[in-house]
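Hey, can you fold this one?
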Amino acid sequence: MGYFYDKMATTMKIYGLAERTQKRYLDEMKKYIGYFNISPDKLNEKHIYIYQSYLVNQKKIGYSSFRIMVNALRFFYNKVMHYDWLIKYIPYQKKRLNYQPY
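Sure. Predicted structure:
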């Protein structure tokens, strides 16, 4: 990620995100960028859809992990890259209720 890694790390510090949040977001961005092996400024909403599809269909990640990934992408594209138009293409999952009825 190089330049974008540094820029995201600095931007998260400016926004006052917790250290753990910063680490998780940077880890998620590394996974996302590594999946395509393309510079993040070249990725678009189609890539996000493909990656989200991969995570839910093949990796079968849970709601919480999916939400962290979405938040990392939203932060990166909105606050670091200033791509306001792209945010609407990064959907959250509907939260599943994990309870047993009596």
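The helical segments are 3-15, 19-36, 45-59, 63-80. Let me know if you want another pass with a different chain boundary.
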